[in-house]
Amino acid sequence: MNRILAKTQLSDDVYMMRLDAPHIARERLPGQFVILQLDNDYGERIPLTIADADPAEGSLTIIFQAVGKTTHNLADKAVGESVVSVLGPLGQPTHIEKFGTVVCVGGGIGVAPLHPIVKGMKQAGNRVIVIVGARNRKLVILEEQMRALADEFIVCTDDGSYGRKALVTEPLKEVCARIPKPELAVAIGPPVMMKFCAEATRPFGVHTLVSLNTIMIDGTGMCGGCRVTVGGQTKFVCVDGPEFDGHKVDFDNMMQRLKAYRKHEDTAHHQCHLDAEIQAKERSLS
Amino acid sequence: MSHITPEALAEAAHRELDAILKKTAPLTPKERIAIPVQDMPTQDPEVRRKNVQEVALGYTPEQARLESMRCLQCRNAPCVQGCPVRIDIPGFLKAAAAGDFLGACAVIKKNSLLPAVCGRVCPQEVQCQEHCTVGKSLKSVDKAVSIGRVERYVADLERDSGKAVSPVIKPATGKKVAVIGSGPASVTVAADVRREGHQVVMFEAFHKPGGVLVYGIPEFRLPKAIVQKEIDALLAMGVEIKTNFVIGRTRKLKALIEEDGFDAVFIGTGAGLPKFMNIEGENLVGVFAANEYLTRANLMKAYDFGRADTPIYRAGRVAILGGGNVAMDAARTAVRLGAAEVHVIYRRTEVEMPARVEEIAHAKEEGVIFHLLENVSRVMGDENGCVKAVECLRYELGEPDASGRRRPVEIKGSEFIRDVEAVIVAIGNDSNPLIPRTTEGLKTTKWGNIIVDETGKTSIDGVYAGGDIVLGAATVILAMGEGRRAAASINERLK
Ligand SMILES: Cc1cc2nc3c(=O)[nH]c(=O)nc-3n(C[C@H](O)[C@H](O)[C@H](O)COP(=O)(O)OP(=O)(O)OC[C@H]3O[C@@H](n4cnc5c(N)ncnc54)[C@H](O)[C@@H]3O)c2cc1C
Ligand SMILES: Cc1cc2nc3c(=O)[nH]c(=O)nc-3n(C[C@H](O)[C@H](O)[C@H](O)COP(=O)(O)OP(=O)(O)OC[C@H]3O[C@@H](n4cnc5c(N)ncnc54)[C@H](O)[C@@H]3O)c2cc1C
Ligand code: SF4
Ligand code: SF4
Ligand code: FES
Fold this sequence. Notes:
The structure holds two protein chains of two kinds.
Chain A: E1 4-11, E2 14-20, H1 22-27, E3 33-37, E4 46-54, E5 59-65, H2 69-75, E6 85-90, E7 101-107, H3 111-123, E8 127-134, H4 143-149, E9 152-157, E10 164-165, H5 169-177, E11 184-188, H6 191-201, E12 207-211, E13 227-230, E14 233-236, H7 237-240, E15 243-245, H8 251-258, H9 273-285
Parallel strand pairs in A: 7-8, 7-11, 8-9, 9-10, 11-12
Antiparallel strand pairs in A: 1-2, 2-5, 3-4, 3-6, 4-5, 12-15, 13-14
Helix pairs in contact in A: 5-6
Chain B: H1 6-22, H2 29-34, H3 45-48, H4 61-69, H5 78-82, H6 89-97, H7 101-109, H8 115-121, H9 133-137, H10 147-161, E1 176-180, H11 184-195, E2 199-203, H12 212-215, H13 224-236, E3 240-242, H14 253-258, E4 264-267, E5 271-274, E6 287-289, H15 290-297, E7 317-321, H16 325-336, E8 341-345, H17 357-365, E9 369-371, E10 374-381, E11 387-400, E12 406-410, E13 416-419, E14 422-425, E15 429-431, H18 434-438, E16 463-465, H19 468-471, H20 476-493
Parallel strand pairs in B: 1-2, 1-4, 2-3, 4-16, 6-14, 7-8, 7-14, 8-9
Antiparallel strand pairs in B: 5-15, 10-11, 11-12, 11-13
The structure holds flavin-adenine dinucleotide (2 copies), iron/sulfur cluster (2 copies) and FE2/S2 (inorganic) cluster.
């Protein structure tokens, strides 16, 4: 069980793996995730979105960025080795139906969880506009797959090394300003990016879904560690989410909570690449 | 509080027992009552504050015999009425008093599957020991026969002796039963159903079986090795355990019956969702549900700094909200993680605290500070969104409410500030909605607890439930008792 069937490096620190997990592959739907663990005694439980699944083969695909100890150790595993624990599929699946035009925005590693949603939206008969953003050309992932699915595909980089030199919020605003405006926006990426995407669509009244990546432990609603404030109410991302109405999420509180263990984390292994990314984005957005 | 060393307790018991054994005439009731209550040997509070090893060390054989001799062998045995699973208490105490500890354990095991666990965690002072005649005649429940401590002693002895007889399993019936969850209710069902020769598959969401016994109750109160032995016993009986398998998600409950060929299903998924208080500042950095804090510390071993990958929030001053076992466990865990001050804040008085008396006493010995008739009304944060203080209100006791307890009433205008860096909320759980939400036709109460009839059967044919998911947050022994009842119904059904 949970054997690694294939492994590909997509960019400097982003990896794609196919795992043998027939039960999960059979049940999973777009928007759902797994929690995995590399050591049952001292290991950490980390959530990763199911980027794709093949029920016939009994496999699922995960795409992850090596940011800390567990993700680095996972990246070091070779084909044929196994992941001790994989639990899932968790979370509420994405609500997919024919809305009309759907604009899907993915930032950095967020393109991975976005992929099954784009696929689902397309299969349901929507016109799908995909906007993908990354810091530079090397960090753009799943471009081919997205291009193949999208009716319209826009890529931008922060440094202009590929596609448009812009933040994803720019093309998103343009798409929202079109007449008719899109029926739905889906934004997945670093928390700051989702926050500003939600701000971008708000004036146009375009309903915006975001997929939150809070810290989790059990993933079944028992611990309360993943909670966020949505529309003034406390919600548990693992059972009520991970997708929420971006216009109602208290992103500032969520970002503070994501940093809760920063000062407690072992600096060698738990270096906060994600935070560096957030800060860089924050600087460039302000 | 002065701590009596285990050596001194052992020495005193040795002398006492010698004196009694020299007598030829049987002990009179008066002499029995005169035997001093045998205190539980414990680690020195100053030492145990800094480790996670078990606090209570267990009786010596002499202590176990002496304590058992205190029992008057009452004909009507009021203590048995107080035990949810009706253990033959005078029966096992009689054997233990005579030094036949394995015999004593065999008596207990007729009714309880987990004596080493229940001896440690049962709230005895409101169950078996509350009714004890000895305690009544000495006018204090503290002086009742320490039934739980003897139970623990004989169970530990049996386990360590390697003489535990594994149960006989009847020939295979070809019938298959699914057990969801692996807490005390589920462990009991698995054992009782397997004994009848049915195949049993247990599904557990976590990576380790045991339920609250492994993720909630800390090592210093219930060593995980003891729970593991119980799980090993199930495996030895041929029960199959599938971890990392969440019913409702990895597989729907109905698919177990309709597609996978299970003849009956037991749901023992426990209490889920932690409750919060809906007050300002509740989602600040540094506010935790006790479930999260304890899971990090126990299951994920976060106390093992440097070795465990899971971090835990370490703060100098910690406030715990609540007065139950969960609150005590969180408070004492915070002490062990190095907090300088741990404050338990509870709305009522100590008499109303639902925690076991022993846990409250141990917490006090370890330096936990109690603030009674007080409640938190707001959590305040700094510019980074981290907890820096709580606003509290003072309370007084008013008229009794429906539960008969006097209702705490806030004193208007009594607000004041307590500086703390972390807040742990331990005010109870709502029931986990995952299975009801994904299982059509499964009836629940308005609080989300699964409704069962007197045989443990739910609204779906062939599906049974028990433990915290039915009772709301309850106790290990009640969960076990419910498991027994449901297992009996399942066995009846599969005959
Ligand atoms: C529902 C969900 C889906 C996710 N999907 C993906 C995905 O498809 N691909 C991917 O690369 N990442 C995904 N993440 C984020 C991923 O879980 C974290 O990157 C991972 O836990 C980091 O673990 P680590 O030990 O390598 O790093 P750590 O050293 O533990 O932490 C590094 C950084 O990650 C943050 N972090 C730590 N633990 C978590 C956690 N449990 N959840 C979120 N952030 C955390 C820390 O705040 C820190 O900034 C998802 C998160 C959630 C909640
Ligand atoms: C911190 C703490 C301290 C306590 N102290 C005491 C004490 O001193 N004395 C006492 O008597 N009682 C105590 N209790 C209460 C006692 O532990 C519970 O009443 C008892 O464990 C309930 O048993 P259960 O079998 O119903 O379920 P649980 O022990 O809650 O186990 C349920 C299991 O089911 C799993 N599960 C849930 N949903 C699913 C699913 N969909 N699929 C698969 N698996 C699932 C969970 O992961 C869990 O492992 C304490 C509780 C806590 C939290
Ligand atoms: S199981 Fe609990 S209540 Fe029953 S006799 Fe033992 S300690 Fe007392
Ligand atoms: S009530 Fe007390 S003294 Fe009487 S049988 Fe029970 S334990 Fe013994
Ligand atoms: S991860 Fe524990 S409740 Fe969501």
